[in-house]
């Protein structure tokens, strides 16, 4: 399918919320939010963004593609690291401005660019009135510098 | 805590990704993405957005607050419906532009404004080359018109 195949969102709330037409509501930057969880154990792996092209590529290939806001380019997740995301199921939410991908991760089963399985490895807690971060102890499953090159260039 | 208590994000990628300082990276609209899952069974319930005030209110009260982009106001989720979200754990991701709330939902355990438990009640599937939506069969747990008033006003 072509990215242009997504119809414009209906002005009818009923159509948007209860209908069978997938008409993603892209934001001012042409993006929808994508939430990615592991198909086997529901772990939240990452949050990313998709433009129409990334969405079309994902639906056609069954492998997750995103829009990299930092690089301004289509991003086939795992192309460099081997940790491709095979989509088991895609869902959308009530107002169609977000999608949920349930995936199986290939390679080292590591989604985060730090090498960890999930990007959400730190807990936010109030300590003495200050919001602070505590790691959950998860460790990298690959060496980012080996995979992506020297630090801060990824 | 005050919304102004969140420090500006460090320019150091190491600090941002490995540090103990919570310095949310608000976007151009002053928002971070919030992913909300059920603490008991990990079901993805909704995706929303938080500004600094919503984040501070959530951390202080233990009850999820968001920024309603449609209403342009702080939104104490469940204030009208009774389906308040009690936060069991909050996490942030590697680059601190998203948070993950693991919650227990009060009231009718229904997060979506359509009355359903989750906002993600439709599967996106390719049917004859067209991306189409199929409902997962989940039914409303409350009547939105009774709770929110006449349709299309919520």
TrEMBL record, chains A, B:
Q: Which residues form the Phosphoribosyl-AMP cyclohydrolase domain?
A: 46-121
The UniProt entry's GO biological process terms, in alphabetical order, are: L-histidine biosynthetic process
Q: Which Pfam families match?
A: PRA-CH
Instruction: Give EC number(s), comma-separated.
Output: 3.5.4.19
Query: What enzyme category does the UniProt record give?
Result: hydrolase
* Gene Ontology CC, one term: cytoplasm
Annotated metabolic or biological route of this protein: Amino-acid biosynthesis; L-histidine biosynthesis; L-histidine from 5-phospho-alpha-D-ribose 1-diphosphate: step 2/9; Amino-acid biosynthesis; L-histidine biosynthesis; L-histidine from 5-phospho-alpha-D-ribose 1-diphosphate: step 3/9
Cofactor annotation comment: Binds 1 zinc ion per subunit.
Q: Does the keyword Methyltransferase apply?
A: no
Q: Where is the signal peptide?
A: none
Listed under catalytic activity are: 1-(5-phospho-beta-D-ribosyl)-5'-AMP + H2O = 1-(5-phospho-beta-D-ribosyl)-5-[(5-phospho-beta-D-ribosylamino)methylideneamino]imidazole-4-carboxamide; 1-(5-phospho-beta-D-ribosyl)-ATP + H2O = 1-(5-phospho-beta-D-ribosyl)-5'-AMP + diphosphate + H(+)
| UniProt cofactor(s) | Zn(2+); Mg(2+)
In its UniProt record, a GO molecular function of this protein is: magnesium ion binding
Q: Which residues bind Mg(2+)?
A: 93, 95, 97
- Compartments where found: Cytoplasm
Keywords for this entry?
Amino-acid biosynthesis, Cytoplasm, Histidine biosynthesis, Hydrolase, Magnesium, Metal-binding, Zinc
Q: Which PANTHER family match?
A: HISTIDINE BIOSYNTHESIS BIFUNCTIONAL PROTEIN, HISTIDINE BIOSYNTHESIS BIFUNCTIONAL PROTEIN HIS7
Protein family: Belongs to the PRA-CH family. In the N-terminal section; belongs to the PRA-CH family.
Name the NCBIfam families on file. PRK00051.1
Q: What does this protein do?
A: Catalyzes the hydrolysis of the adenine ring of phosphoribosyl-AMP.
Q: What is this protein called?
A: Phosphoribosyl-AMP cyclohydrolase
Task: Name the species this protein comes from.
Answer: Nitratireductor mangrovi
């Amino acid at each position: 399918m072509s990215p242009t195949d997504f119809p414009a969102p209906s002005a009818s709330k009923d159509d948007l919320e209860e209908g069978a037409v997938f008409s993603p509501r892209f934001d001012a930057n042409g993006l929808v939010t994508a939430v990615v969880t592991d198909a086997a154990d529901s772990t939240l792996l990452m949050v990313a963004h998709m433009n129409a092209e990334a969405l079309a590529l994902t639906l056609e290939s069954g492998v997750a593609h995103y829009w990299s806001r930092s690089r301004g380019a289509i991003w086939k997740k795992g192309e460099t690291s081997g940790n491709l995301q095979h989509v088991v199921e895609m869902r959308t939410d009530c107002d169609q401005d977000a999608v949920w991908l349930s995936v199986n991760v290939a390679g080292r089963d590591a989604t985060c660019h730090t090498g960890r399985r999930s990007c959400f490895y730190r807990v936010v807690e109030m300590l003495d009135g200050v919001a602070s971060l505590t790691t959950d102890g998860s460790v990298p499953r690959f060496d980012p510098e080996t995979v992506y090159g020297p630090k801060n260039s990824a």
